[in-house]
Design brief:
heterodimer, A: alpha/beta, Rossmann fold, 2 domains, five-stranded parallel sheet, four-stranded parallel sheet, 9 helices, globular, B: mainly beta, Alpha-Beta Plaits, SH3 type barrels, five-stranded antiparallel sheet, four-stranded antiparallel sheet, 3 helices, elongated, binds zinc ion
Chain lengths: ~300, ~160
Amino acid sequence: MSTLKGRSLISITDYSKDDILKILDMAEEFEKNPRRNILNGYIVASLFFEPSTRTRLSFESAVQYLGGRIVGFATADTSSVKKGESLKDTILTVSNYSDLIVMRNPLDGSARFASEVSPVPIINAGDGANQHPTQCLLDLYSIRKTQGRLENIDIAMVGDLKYGRTVHSLVQALTLFGAKFHFVSPESLKMPSAVKTVIKNAGLEYDQYTELSDVIPFADILYMTRIQGERFPDPLEYEKVKNSYILSNRMLRGSKETMKVLHPLPRVNEITEDVDDNPKAYYFQQARNGVYIRQALIAAILGLK
Amino acid sequence: MNSKRTELKVSAIRNGTVIDHIPTESVFQVFKILNLDKTKNQVYFGTNLDSKKYGKKGIIKISDKYFEYEEINKIALAAPKATLIEIKDYDVIRKENVQLPEYVDKIVKCFNPKCVTNNQNVSTSFKVTEDHKGNMKLFCKYCEKTMAKENIEFV
Ligand SMILES: [Zn+2]
């Protein structure tokens, strides 16, 4: 693990294909046996400048399964940030008290900046609309686990592809493995051209749809995301499209036997509850996989086995 | 009016650097990028000069100063067609077109209002890239957004 030791993880593009595979392999071991006391005597700082209960709890349980301790805050309201302390000062101070910093911050690029000033490694737990690499890794883990491979997956991404950072990172990561991309979104929320350029530069292909039903017959992975009404310049347009990107159990008829439905959660209404009992629904296990991924990352970055 | 007389409107320098073919409206931008407002050297400049190639152009002459190429290439963002001429004893010793640098640090603002560089005391840093159509783009090292030329604003 020498190459990952001491290195911050800010953006999924910081990791090579080998780095990613190393983390996935380690996570597999943690899934077999999550309770290991290797973090005994270590302190992880968890700095959530904006609330994200799901991500925070996942990191905290990862640390605690490993026997480590956590210091930090869950919102900026109760911290010195509210008194106007700069991000740099907060990071420099907290790095005195911890071996590793997990940070969530609403500013795009805040994690990269934190990693430049911090003497201890940083794991980015979401920097605004930019990156959320641990989500990306747990998505990759879930794909590999359910499909038995990462290479040449037919992945359909559905919903808000313009602003959804999880789908952008996942595209970047999957280009390393040669995926086929199928994008399903309303006209106004299509995948940005910068992301399409990444696909083209990797010599891969994508196609675009406006109907969810078009991709269901051939998708290996159906990656659902939320569509937020406020993203639409015209509320009428939202009304028109909002129901076309809701997945119900009935729609899964005719899908591949091995197909799985993923969602970064929380869902609002884009997957109806009758899908939950279908064995193709994988989003709750997907969230569980996040704990193993975070255990693997923390162990690798601290150089522990 | 012939080009010889146009040239004479801005004094010739004995030693130093001439930056020619600057778009007239970018002359002060180039000044700022090269910190010429703070230099102790003699600086001459002209705007709205006639140019055979570009209609109107600007020119800057800096006495007794030669630039590192990496430094002066930063002006390519404001003056992509500029020519650099180095003068020694009234003779041209080097003449080259500016080229886009690989990185652009500190001189351009990020267009993303939520970028950390616009909200904390952090200098900007961009990698110069191209999209698949060959258009120049700036990739922010921090927020990882890609900025098109028309969004470039100097600090
Ligand atoms: Zn930026």
